Amino acid sequence: MNSLLEQLQPYPFARLREAMQGLDAPEGITPVPLHIGEPKHATPKVVTEALASSLAELSAYPLTAGLPELRQACADWICRRYDGLKICPNTEILPVLGSREALFSFIQTVLDPVTDGSKPVVISPNPFYQIYEGATLLGGGEIHFANCPAPAFNPDWRSISEDIWKRTKIVILCSPNNPSGSVLKREDWQEIFALQDRYGFVIASDECYSEIYFDGNKPIGCLQAAAELGRSNKGLVMFTSLSKRSNVPGLRSGFVAGDAELLKNFLLYRTYHGSAMSIPVQRASIAAWNDEPHVIENRHLYQEKFDKVIPILRQKFDVKTPDASFYIWLKIPDGDDLAFAKKLWQQAAIQVLPGRFLARMTASGNPGEGYVRIALVADVESCVKAAETIVSLYSDTTA
Question: Cross-referenced PANTHER family, in alphabetical order (predicted)?
Answer without folding.
Answer: AMINO ACID AMINOTRANSFERASE (PTHR42832), L-GLUTAMINE--4-(METHYLSULFANYL)-2-OXOBUTANOATE AMINOTRANSFERASE (PTHR42832:SF3)
